Amino acid sequence: MDELETPTASNGYAVYASRLSRVFGSLRAVQDLDLRVEPGTLYGFLGRNGAGKSTTIKMLTGILAPSSGSIELLGVEATDEAQAAEVRRRIGVVPEDLALFELLTGREYLDFVGTIYLLDEAVARERVDELLEVLNVGAGEKQLVLEYSHGMRKKLALAAALIGDPALLFLDEPFEGVDAVSSRVMRDILVRFVERGGTVFITSHVLDVIERLCTHVGIIDRGRLVYEAPLSSLEGRTLESVFIERVGDAEGMRTELSWLREDGI
After folding, report:
1. Mean per-residue pLDDT for 130-136?
2. Rounded to an integer, what distance in angstroms lies between the CA atom of residue 54 and that of residue 58?
3. pLDDT-derived band of residue 70, with 50, 70 and 90 as boundaries?
4. Across 26-30, 66-70, 232-236, least confident range
5. CA 191 to mean position of chain CA atoms
6. What is the average per-residue pLDDT within 175-191?
């Protein structure tokens, strides 16, 4: 497989966001967020529920317009409508809300996505065959997406994100509901994707997965980036300890139920 020819932002980053913000009424979901993701990075984006992770990904991928700030992806000004179509051809997305066409089979859905990416018919057929096999979506031959389990939908969404041979992947909780064997296959695919020059921006609440998979990590809390570093810099500390330190002290939280105490008090 050839190495990816990955264009990067003029400043050398695959993902470059400056003072990115999104406001919903009185709620500031994301506040003056700066992101710098180097090409060839597996970047884990972490935060508690409601911290702003999915809102950030939606802005980076063009699903949601930012209230303010700028975004460059792969050397393209992504918030410029005149250039947005160019960058969308070079990225793959597994969004939080899986917008899959439920009355198609898995194969029909991937055939459709291949058409959207303007793939040659023979190339598309070969990639669909391989994706269905490798990601174990064999039921995709006949079963409607409507009948898929949540984990199967996640795998189909990843297949759709990969079929166009993107340079940059945005994955929002891609392992949620996926069995252990399929998770291992997916991790191997992502590692190989990065080894050949791709960049992955991924969110997950499973810190163990991020710690074993990613090369860099950023932590968002209340819409602000509160930590960013290579995972190699943890120097013996666990990612969980860093995460709790940055977003909330477990010692100050109530962690047990009264009726489960041994003394019953």
Report:
1. 93
2. 6
3. very high
4. 232-236
5. 14
6. 93
Dump strand ranges (E) for 27-78: 27-37, 42-46, 68-73, 76-77
Angle in degrees, CA 37, 43, 48, rounded to 5: 115
Contact 156, 100 (CB under 8 A): yes
Alpha-carbon distance of 74 to 116, in angstroms, equals 20
pLDDT range class, residue 257, cuts 50, 70, 90 = confident
199-203 and 15-24 beta bridge pairing = unpaired
Q: For the purposes of burial, counting CB atoms within 10 Å of the CB of 177, is it exposed (0-12), middle (13-18) or buried (19 or more)?
A: middle
What 8-state DSSP symbol labels residue 144? Answer: B
Task: For the beta carbon of residue 263, count every other beta carbon within 10 angstroms.
Answer: 5
CA distances 142 to 63, 137, 138, 178, Å, are: 30, 11, 9, 21
Distance CA 52, CA 220 (A): 7
**Which strand (E) or helix (H) includes residue 225?**
strand 224-230
pLDDT at 249 over 80: no
Q: Are 35 and 15 in contact (CB under 8 A)?
A: yes
d(CA 168, CA 88): 10
Q: How far apart are CA 56 and CA 66, in angstroms?
A: 9
Count Cβ atoms below 10 Å from residue 237 Cβ, excluding itself. Answer: 10
CA–CA separation, 62 vs 172, rounded Å?
A: 14
